[in-house]
Amino acid sequence: MTAQEPEQDNVNHSSSSLTQDADKKMMKDLSKAEACLTQDAKKKKIKEKLKAEARKEFKTLLIGSIAMVVSTVSNQAVPRLVGKVIDKSSSSLNTSNNSKFPSLTLVVLGGGLASFLRTTMLKRAQDNISSRLRSDAFRRMLTQHELEWFEDGTNSTVETTKKTVIDNEDQVSSQKEPQKNVEEIKIANTPASILQILDHDINKLSMSLTTTLTSILRSTCSCVFATSHMLSLNPTLLGLSFSIVPVIGTAAIVLNKFVKRVSKKQVENDTLAASFVEERLTNIATVKTSCRENDEADHYNEYQKHSVELGRNVSLAKGAFMGFTFAASSGALFAVIRAGGESVKRGLMSQGELTSFVTYSFMLGLGTSGVIKAMGEFSQGMISAERVYSLMGYNNEEEKFEQKTCGDETVENESVQGITIENVDFTYKSDTDRKTLQNISLRINRGEVVVLVGKNGSGKSTLASLLVGLYRPQSGQIIAEGVDFYSLNRNTQSQLVQIVPQRPSLFNMSIIDNVKYSNPNATDESVKFALTAANCDEFISKLDGGSSYIVGSNGNKLSGGQQSRISLARSLLTKSCLLILDEPTSSLDGEGENAVTKIIQICRNGDANNKKRALLLISHRMASLRLADLIVVLKDGQIAEQGSYSELSGDGSSELWKLMAKMK
């Protein structure tokens, strides 16, 4: 028995291994099937959206399509009429050679008018669809996506060679072909990639729904009409003309699959290139101070080389296909003319009929190539459609968006006396292995100044972002007088809580418009109070145009301190219950620091209307600690301790004591 036990163990082990391999294979097959179902559901959803979009332009597209059919019929009538004119011209018995010219003239003029109407209507529908999609995409992107989507989210991925994206040194120095091993690169939702979708992809999509679809219809009609005419003229010659269709059709299917795959890679490569340019230009000062201008130019050049290489592959494939098509069509046409010549000699058809037949053969070839070309363009349009509807926030299986940070409820600002945080946990989607905030509980009342301190990375700015509604916690609640903060609509949230971030955001418009951005309906008196409280009056009076002065892109015409003071003024206009200042003095001069002191006094004692505010001050400065009613110390995402300045600073073992040694 003991001698057989090892053998039995080996058998059991082998059986177990086989079972595990079978399970792995089954799971892999299930994953593939699940991915296919998800992809099919996504394509189905996109098709439904495209149909709905096309229905909005039903009348315009209908008129354009009818005009297209009329123009196609006119084109198809011309060869027949020309053939009859030739036959009558060559007939010695005919005395009226011009009897067909009025009909021919009518057909030509009618076809020209129909072509004009078709082009006009389709272009109008295309422009309408593009405009509507851009507006809808921009609105949905702003209102339906959380902040984290813009910061860390991705709208697509691309498989690319290490040479073209990862190993920059090899890109510059090596002239070898790209390595075969690929690496998946995520395309972030950068302004550059979003702009490319709003411009390039929406243009492609709208063209696919209008010009491309009608081109398919027109070319198909041309093929059908040409075939019917050729059948009526000479069925035998028709069979000869059709002999090359299966060969060309097969080649076209292979070509379209290849072009679609490579075109998708080219679009994704161009998106990466655009994002690269946007990031480098945003950080141009760092590029220049690091003396990396030429390196970055070489890096961008590699993106362009890769794009050209992909485009070259497409052009070679298309060129080979067109060359093959031309040779095959020319050979078939030559055979048709030769066989048709014999039919004319035997009296089976006239010279004019042969001319008409040859012309229809040519038109059949054009129609076939038109269908193939349009189908390829439509496939590229569907790639763009996936990117557009991904940007708009549609899920693969159902029409829903990312978990929203707001609801539909409202609450009166004046009735809210404070904001309560209860057992809040938060984890970034980009780093799910680490909890950024854990079990945070805190109450901030109107007229109270709370200073939040902690080391970098302790979660201070994340907590501020949760309070202002930019993120939503995975568990716990933020409550405004008994109402869940995230059940309130976005406008109410904005009126309740305002934040002055570390880096102020100003738009390329006037100072007054930047200040009123948080409250466009603010009165002149309120604006004047906010500017005065933020110590903006003096420097504004020295500017050309005063408060109408255009601050430039990102406020670059103003100093950092001036930008921060305008941001402070903007925050006061909402009359919020809670005001958050995130490191407000980090870029401020003396005037700016005085402005912060004024704002602290306004929050604690009330404004011109005696309205107090709760103030959460995130700071690393010793001076800020003495202004606090309550100091909260964060450590590793948790509240390590809280209390008054005298309580915490007097305890040599406290976390605040350890931090104070590093404070200014």
Characterise the protein shown here.
The protein is an alpha/beta fold and 664 residues long. It has two domains: 56-391, ABC transporter type 1, transmembrane domain (ABC transporter transmembrane region fold, Up-down Bundle); 413-660, 3-Layer(aba) Sandwich (Rossmann fold), CATH 3.40.50.300. It is built from 22 helices and twelve strands. The chain has helices at 4-55, 58-90, 101-144, 147-152, 162-166, 168-173, 191-233, 235-241, 245-282, 284-289, 293-345, 351-391, 460-467, 490-496, 511-515, 524-533, 537-541, 560-572, 590-605, 622-625, 645-649, 655-660, and strands spanning 154-161, 182-188, 418-426, 437-445, 449-454, 475-480, 483-484, 497-500, 578-582, 614-618, 630-635, 638-643. A six-stranded mixed β-sheet has the order 8-9-10-5-11-12, sandwiched between helices. The protein has a four-stranded antiparallel β-sheet with strand order 4-3-6-7, with helices on one face. Strands 1-2 form a two-stranded antiparallel ribbon. A hairpin with a 2-residue loop joins β11 and β12 (638-643). α2 (58-90) runs antiparallel to α12 (351-391), α9 (245-282) packs parallel to α12 and α18 (560-572) packs parallel to α19. The termini are far apart. The model is unreliable at 153-186 and 396-403 (pLDDT under 50).
